[in-house]
Amino acid sequence: MKYTITGDNLQFVNIQLEQGEKIQSTANAMKYMSGNMTMNAKMKGGLLSGLKRSLMGESLFLLEYESRGGPGIVGLGGGPPGKILNLDISKGTWMVQKSGFLCSEETVNLEMAFQKKMGGIFFGGEGLILQKLSGNGIAFIAACGDFNVIDLKPGETYKVSSSNAVAWEESVKFDISATGGFKTAMFGGEGLFLTTLTGPGKIVIQSMTVADLAMAIMPYIPTSQ
């Protein structure tokens, strides 16, 4: 598999497959493909796995792409304006925010994971369910805004605004911490809690969430008088 990521804030991942190679994607991700590329919906892992994917905000089915009669190309993209990032799952398991998975090689496993901390469930901004990417191969994630990828040293901690933590390696400790005093919580615009990520491992932070984007454009949406 060969790939390029093109564009700025409305990106494509352009994947070239040789005959016999396969990738899988979430529903509605395909934007174009060459004439010799086939696309089939499959309930990978059976009904139970499909139901778990639906709880993660994905479709019951994953779409499988395969090239026939030589190299083929498929282009995939995310939903809201944002970035696409490649993750080498062969080097370790990643935890991804709900609906962050875009596509991957078929050797990557997409599973449901739960927040380990009760604080993360109620105040972490992404709720109870996360996506867990394991196995081998390259996976691609997509989210709103720009990305900042940080490699945390052992014991190094970043406090991230709720919902802005896109993904982190499984080695990173995830927790919830208070923003500070009452005035900071009420008037700082960040609420009562922040997501705390402690290394070692890489983390991915987004500059804007879908909710932030909706709030930013809401004043400019025409309304009936």
| Residues in helix, % | 10-25%
**Head-to-tail CA distance between termini:** 54 Å
How much of the sequence is in beta strands? over 45%
Q: Which quaternary structure do these chains form?
A: single chain
Give the strand order of the largest sheet, numbering strands 1, 2, ... along the chain. Answer: 5-6-3-10-13-8
Notable features of this structure?
225 residues; mainly beta; 6-stranded antiparallel β-sheet; 4 helices
Concise summary:
This protein has 225 residues and is mainly beta. Helices cover 13% and strands 47% of the residues.
How does this model look, in words?
There is one protein chain. It is built from four helices and 19 strands. The strands form four sheets. The chain has a six-stranded antiparallel β-sheet, with no helix packed on it. It is mainly beta. 13% of the residues lie in helices and 47% in strands.
Explain the layout of strands and helices.
Elements: E1 2-6, E2 12-17, E3 22-25, E4 30-33, E5 37-42, H1 46-55, E6 62-67, E7 72-77, E8 82-88, E9 94-96, E10 101-105, E11 108-114, H2 118-123, E12 129-135, E13 138-144, E14 147-152, E15 157-160, E16 165-169, E17 173-178, H3 182-187, E18 193-198, E19 201-206, H4 210-217
Antiparallel strand pairs: 1-2, 2-7, 3-6, 3-10, 4-7, 5-6, 8-13, 9-12, 9-16, 10-13, 11-12, 14-19, 15-18, 16-19, 17-18
